[in-house]
Design goal:
single chain; Rossmann fold; 5-stranded antiparallel beta sheet; 8 helices; 18 strands; binds adenosine-5'-triphosphate; binds magnesium ion
């Protein structure tokens, strides 16, 4: 088991910055998820942790040990790649056994460990099948078995369930969580599926265009998004203009000139454009009059914001990388 520290890491490809100033600590045994849209730098970050890329700036540490430029085979991380990276002409057995052979384990031990892990991912019947003759979902499970069989300190999973049908996906989610808890492996999981992130993770880091926007538990990220990007990326939300009235020290709904009670703490600054984020399940809509502290009226419809809205900064969409 290891903790993982990313200390201000930046990764540039030529003059393009794929990841900028990422600073975070993943605790021992934690299930930590990188969530964000395509191209936001999730795989690049994972590859820096695995050692396939070295950061342009900053440090990667496992348990306070500097690993920044240690080669991948000396890190004891198990990785499931987004494109699996299996050996197509080898059998399932040979693919899964590979990492153990490299580590010079005895033949009998290799056989036992490979069979055990294939049982877990339900691929035992395919043990002698060539990988190129498997379906996408089966290949994905071979990749998972190959990462698990070495009993890694850190498990890195890059969208490991994207090719599975809904039912198998659900089963494999539970299986991954079970294995992770059982072995206590520090796990970093990459996905752009917010439901997966919210249901599986201890904590989530939300990325956008190479920048980490927010780190928190699923509840924190859902209930207290820091900006409009996070609010919209995690679940459904309504973003309405809001103004900060300096003299009264209160928030007013934009246009309606109605004072709004909000959930503290709000953004770090009240400067710049602000929005209030209201989840659909928090709104009561009525054609007869409603009363209460956070009731808004538009023509003959009343909206009761039953949970106080949280205030988010709306500057994130303009984040530009140098
Ligand atoms: N080897 C490379 N050379 C140049 N640019 C790269 C390289 N690898 C990644 N990039 C760029 O860096 C950015 C981040 O890529 P990355 O693969 O980390 O995205 P991602 O978040 O994993 O996306 P996806 O969800 O589509 O897998 C992208 O704009 C990508 O084009
Ligand atoms: Mg990726």
């Amino acid at each position: 088991m290891s903790s993982v520290t990313l200390a201000n890491i930046t990764k540039r490809f030529g003059n393009f910055t794929a990841v900028k100033d990422l600073d975070l600590v993943i605790e021992e045994g934690e299930f930590f998820t990188f969530l964000g849209p395509s191209g936001c730098g999730k795989t690049t970050t994972l590859r820096m942790i695995a050692g396939f890329y070295y950061p342009s700036e900053g440090k990667v540490k496992f348990n306070e040990k500097d690993m920044t430029t240690v080669s991948p085979e000396n890190r004891n991380t198990g990785m499931v790649f987004q494109n699996y990276a299996l050996f197509p002409h080898m059998t399932v057995y040979e693919n899964v056994a590979f990492g153990l052979k490299v580590r010079k384990k005895k033949k009998a031990e290799i056989k036992k460990r490979v069979e055990d892990v294939l049982e877990k991912v339900r691929l035992k019947p395919f043990i002698d099948r060539q990988v190129s003759q498997l379906s996408g979902g089966q290949q994905q499970r071979v990749a998972l078995a190959r990462a698990l069989v070495i009993e890694p300190d850190i498990l890195l999973l890059d969208e490991p369930l994207s090719n599975l049908d809904a039912r198998l996906r659900d089963e494999m989610r539970n299986e991954i969580l079970r294995l992770q808890r059982e072995y206590g492996i520090t796990t970093i999981y990459v996905t752009h599926d917010q439901v997966e992130a919210l249901t599986m993770s201890d904590r989530i880091a939300v990325f956008n265009v190479g920048n980490c926007q927010q780190i928190g538990t699923p509840t924190e990220i859902y209930n207290q998004p820091v900006n409009d990007f996070v609010a919209e990326f995690i679940g459904e939300t309504n973003l309405l203009d809001v103004e900060w009235k300096q003299d009264e020290e209160e928030f007013y709904s934009g246009g309606l000139n109605r004072r709004i009670e909000v959930t503290p703490p709000g953004p770090e600054t009240n400067e710049g454009p602000l929005k209030m984020s209201i989840r659909p399940e928090a709104i009561q809509v009525s054609e007869t009059e409603l009363t209460g502290p956070n009731v808004l009226q538009e023509r003959s419809i009343w909206f009761n914001l039953q949970e106080k809205p949280c205030i988010v900064s709306s500057q994130s969409m303009r984040v530009k990388l140098l």
